[in-house]
Specification:
This protein has 4 helices and no strands. With 89 residues, the chain is mainly α.
Length: 89
Amino acid sequence: MSYLDTEITRNEFITTRGEEKTQMGAKSSLNLFDRFCESTYREKGDSVVRNLESAIKKDGNYDRLFMICNNFVLWLQEEHPKIMVKRNP
């Protein structure tokens, strides 16, 4: 599956989202994922994704991918009073 072999940078991901508001939403989501990873795993989101990719390549076990995604969703549902999200009018 050649589409899985393609790497994309964070900046490329954001800039290919289309309209500026959509790009801002993508950037905000990636920032929240970084905060989740830093608070949960003490690593940046990019590092967690690369470690996850490496582990899956070794053993083919995708369960940890679903676990991380689920943990992120659960984390998003919690209150985080120290996190301030700036909103543009």
